[in-house]
Amino acid sequence: MSSQSDSEPGLDQQVLAAAQRLLAGSGVSSLTMDRLAAESGVSRATIYRRYGGRAALLKRLAEEHGLPIKEFDLDADIRGRILQAARTIVGATGSITFTVEQVAAEAGLGVATVYRHFGTKANLLRRMAEYFHPRRAAQELLAHASDDLAADLQEFARSMLHFMQSPGDFARLLFSGDERVRQLFRSAHNDQERTLNSLTRYLEAQMKAGRLPAQDPFDLSTALMGMILGFAFVKPTYMKTREDPERAARFIVRLFLAGIQKDTP
After folding, report:
1. Which residue of 62, 83, 87, 113 could cross-link 109, Cys pair, CB 3.0 to 4.6 Å?
2. CA angle 236-180-168, nearest 5°?
């Protein structure tokens, strides 16, 4: 990583050129501060000091270099920072009793900005649950299903385990029986059901394609989800160590598929 000072004349050109290369390659989503630091050879801390964050950098590129970065891209970046800040606080404390002021401070934004984007703390909690919920793994499974059943299921299990472990306290809240939490995360509770339903539809389609023997697809999806939850929460509680999602996903799917074949009449 470069040791350039913030005031070195070529620093702007170096960072902005790197940012433009990233944008040209994969669009706005590819421009993260970590990738920009690696691409430009300038430290992440220096980039933050000089440009004030990703949204400010995107705005500068749009204004000074005419890049087609729309206002909703900047808004989405700010919303993402707020949601990640809230998730970080919940994960660190294991509680939803944070304040909007704490979220704003964690995100490096003003309190008014948080309220402008989410309105209330309750709405922020709901949006956070929706944004980070593992339903996306189920949606990906359905949208990008392949002929390789084991690979599909391993990717699904791996995604679920990554969510549940990062950070674990946040995921535990989503799956908790606390009525106060369930009320605040009502949309997330509904998404849990949709995740199971999506997995059920995927398994049903695999049966129709002849890749799985005919059985009750909802029973199978419930069994698979139960195994994933066991490796995400039960085993780490007893072993006091975090499970490797890659290894666990392979083991779960092997056991799951072998069990289906063995149980077939």
Report:
1. 113
2. 20
pTM for this one? 0.53
CB–CB of 163/233 below 8 Å? no
Query: How far is it, in rounded angstroms, from Cα 155 to Cα 249?
Result: 8
Contact between 213 and 261 under an 8 Å Cβ cutoff? The reply is yes
* Tokens encoding 10: 């070529």
Token couple for 228: 């994933």
CA torsion 23-27-33-36 (nearest 10°) is -30
Q: Which amino acid is at 248?
A: A
User: How does pLDDT run across 19-59, given as a tens digit for each residue?
Assistant: 888 877 666 666 777 788 888 888 877 887 787 667 677 77
CB distance 125 to 183 below 8 Å: no
Q: Which of 94, 103, 154 is nearest to 124 (CA)?
A: 103
Q: Which residues of 132-149 are buried (b: 16+ CB within 10 A; e: fewer)?
A: bbbbebbeebeeeeeeeb
Name the phi and psi angles at 240, rounded to 5.
65, 25
DSSP-H helix ranges across the chain: 11-26, 33-40, 44-51, 54-65, 71-93, 100-107, 111-118, 121-132, 135-143, 149-165, 168-174, 179-184, 186-208, 217-229, 235-239, 245-263
C-alpha 91, offset from chain centre = 13
**What secondary structure letter does DSSP report for 99?**
-
Instruction: Give residue-wise pLDDT tens across range 214-261.
Output: 999 999 999 999 999 899 888 887 887 777 889 999 999 999 999 998
* CA-based nearest residue to 186, from 138, 238, 101, 127: 127
Residue type, 103: V
